[in-house]
Design brief:
Helices cover 50% and strands 14% of the residues. It is built from 24 helices and 16 strands.
């Protein structure tokens, strides 16, 4: 008993000390803000931008300590001062509106509408002329406001807030990606001169990667930006052009697109406090829609920390995957899916849009024995995107690449972003990118399957399975492209990024995982050692290609689903590159897949596909069959992204 009392006294003492320290820090913060306010009044006056900014910060401080009355007074004063010139100070005005929302005890519908209008009007006005890269940067800056608003809707909870939340997710999840896809789809149907101009622009964007002269680099960068803005100016004058509308799709439209036994689920992750006793942490929520839904159902799923703890297994890749999707599969399902299970009784198809760490989860493996199908979508807004007019009947036309000559890559020295090149060469020397002996067998087998069904096959192996050949493909000649090769994804903190980038700023490449992920092909000696034939094909390079109209791209390689996860935009890597390039569906891998068993998996997959089954059912049947003979590591890594 004495031991227990002593233990409790120690714990209580620690809590009291932390509470005292926190109080002291808060008092210091209040003192600092008040001092800053006085200084700003003296130097800039009460009608200055600086005064309004400090008022808002001090108001936020009072919001944090729970003094909403004082917070409301300060933020209200800031709003009154800025209101007459809000159009010239949109960012600060938007932030003041959000601070005002946090200080109110009662829901203010008018304020919510103004906040949403301000955020999306700013997106619409900026997106018209922003380049593709600028859109991604703009979205990352806007995302904090979206997260704040979505967190507010989650905390308030209720039918009307669930509707607003779902609409916000439809508008902002993969916002830059959806906008860029919208533009490329329009250009693919535009007059030939517009298409030619756009494809030249993409080539110029790729050219900048190989420019080592500083003066030429700056000049080319300015020229590319001007070219893209000029092209946008031409597009907006065309009668057939309509800009991308983030809020053009609503929750009820998604609901109305569903059949009776179908369910649409949007999953989001938000940093928030679930109770006054908890600190702020990332939590995952699902918004569930059914045909009969009067509003989306908001369901709390799990804390990110719980998922991280579960996925942080000891052992190599095989050992960890076999535990997660084998011996501890039930526990895994309970963490991320159990709260949803009662909502899905009697369902046939579940259309699922994920976020955060869930991009690293193999849903086909987890859901293998479930009575419904799980279809992975970038966003459930995809359910109501108009289906393109039916073209000619599919002829089972496939392009195959396998058994690439990786040693030929070592002979290439043309890359300006040499760190990626060096890492790959070191991998070749150390055996990381060893020869894949079963990839020739894989493509040979697929060729026989298609030939037996009178399909049309083009196959390249050895040195002919080159980057140059891939780049020169006429996409209109194929329904499917299958690449059996090595994939790569280097994390940002990889030792390779300790080197310099010649003239280019290191952060230009290191910060973007589109440069740190890709696939390896051969360097074809016939075409020389040009920049388009070095065998290292990054996600960035693929994103500048045109595969619009291609039904399916299969990346039978390691970690081709990997990349940096960036908020609502999702995974920056090969899967994003393929979407930007216009590929309809893609099969990619979540981890380092084994060569031999992968060839067996795709033999079964294409055997099913050639019989008329969809890519989804063909992969599902193949994984079911593999599961009877092999542990999850050998087959569960592949996912179909629709």
């Amino acid at each position: 008993m004495l031991i227990q009392r002593s233990w409790w006294d120690n714990i209580r003492t620690v809590f009291e000390e932390k509470k005292t320290l926190k109080l002291q820090l808060l008092q210091e913060a209040e003192k600092s803000y008040s001092t800053a306010l006085g200084v700003v009044i003296d130097k800039a006056g009460k009608d200055s931008y600086q005064y309004v900014s400090v008022l808002r910060q001090l108001g936020n401080y009072y919001n944090q300590i729970g003094d909403n009355k004082k917070a409301g007074e300060l933020i209200g004063e800031a709003q009154t001062i800025l209101n007459p010139v809000r159009s010239e100070n949109k960012d600060l005005y938007n932030d003041i509106l959000l601070s005002s929302l946090a200080s109110r005890n009662a829901v203010d519908e008018e304020l919510l509408n103004e906040i949403e209008d301000q955020i999306f009007d700013q997106i619409a006005s900026n997106f018209i002329f922003l380049t593709e890269e600028e859109k991604e940067s703009f979205v990352s800056k806007t995302e904090k406001r979206i997260i704040f608003l979505n967190s507010y809707y989650v905390r308030e909870n209720g039918p009307e807030f669930a509707k607003r939340l779902y609409n916000n997710i439809l508008a902002t999840k993969q916002l830059a990606l959806n906008s860029n896809q919208h533009l490329r789809r329009f250009i693919s149907e535009a007059p030939k001169n517009i298409q030619t101009e756009y494809h030249q622009l993409l080539k110029n964007k790729e050219e900048i990667l190989y420019t080592t002269n500083e003066e030429k680099l700056r000049s080319l960068g300015s020229e590319i930006t001007k070219q893209e803005r000029d092209l946008k100016s031409k597009l907006v004058t065309m009668n057939s052009y309509s800009p991308f509308e983030p809020k053009g799709v609503t929750w009820d439209q998604v609901r109305d697109s569903l059949e009776t036994t179908e369910v649409a689920i949007e999953i989001i992750n938000l940093p928030l406090k679930l109770s006054h006793d908890d600190g702020e942490e990332v939590n995952y929520f699902a918004l569930v829609l059914k045909k009969e839904s009067e509003y989306p159902e908001l369901i709390h799923l799990f804390r990110e920390k719980d998922l991280e703890d579960f996925m942080n297994k000891e052992g190599n890749v095989q050992e960890r995957m076999d535990v997660m999707y084998g011996s501890q599969k039930t526990e895994f399902l309970d963490i991320i899916w159990q709260p949803l299970s009662h909502e899905l009784v009697g369902s046939s198809n579940v259309y699922l849009s994920i976020s955060g760490l869930l991009h690293m989860v193999s849903f086909p493996a987890l859901m293998l024995d479930q009575p419904y199908e799980i279809h992975l979508l970038g966003s459930t807004r995809d359910l109501i995107i108009p289906t393109p007019a039916e073209g000619p009947e599919k002829e089972n036309r496939i392009a195959l690449f396998g058994d690439a000559d990786f040693e030929s890559i070592e002979q290439s020295d043309v890359r300006s972003f040499s760190t990626v090149d060096n890492k790959i060469k070191k991998g070749l020397e150390s055996g990381l990118f060893n020869d894949l002996q079963y990839t020739r067998q894989e493509v040979d087998t697929i060729e026989r399957i298609f030939n037996s069904a009178n399909g049309m096959v083009s196959k390249w192996v050895g040195k002919k399975a080159s980057e140059k050949t891939f780049r020169d493909l006429n996409k209109d000649n194929y329904d499917i492209i299958h690449l059996a090769t090595h994939g790569f994804y280097f994390k940002k903190n990889s030792p390779v990024f300790s080197a310099t980038f010649d003239v280019m700023n290191q952060n230009f490449l290191e910060d973007n995982s589109m440069f740190r992920s890709g696939i390896l092909l051969s360097r074809d000696d016939v075409h020389g050692a040009g920049k388009n034939n070095d065998g290292i094909l990054t996600a960035y390079e693929i994103s500048k290609m045109d595969f619009s109209g291609l039904d399916l791209m299969v990346l039978s390689a390691c970690e081709t689903a990997s990349g940096d996860i960036s908020g609502g935009e999702g995974v920056f890597g090969l899967q994003r590159a393929l979407k930007l390039a216009g590929v309809k569906d893609q099969i990619v891998s979540l981890w380092q897949v084994p060569d031999k068993e992968t060839s067996i998996l795709f033999k079964i997959f294409y055997g099913n596909l050639i019989k008329g089954h969809s890519p989804y059912h063909s992969l599902s049947m193949a994984q079911h069959e593999m599961a009877r003979k092999y542990s999850p590591f050998y087959w569960a890594g592949f996912v179909l992204l629709e």
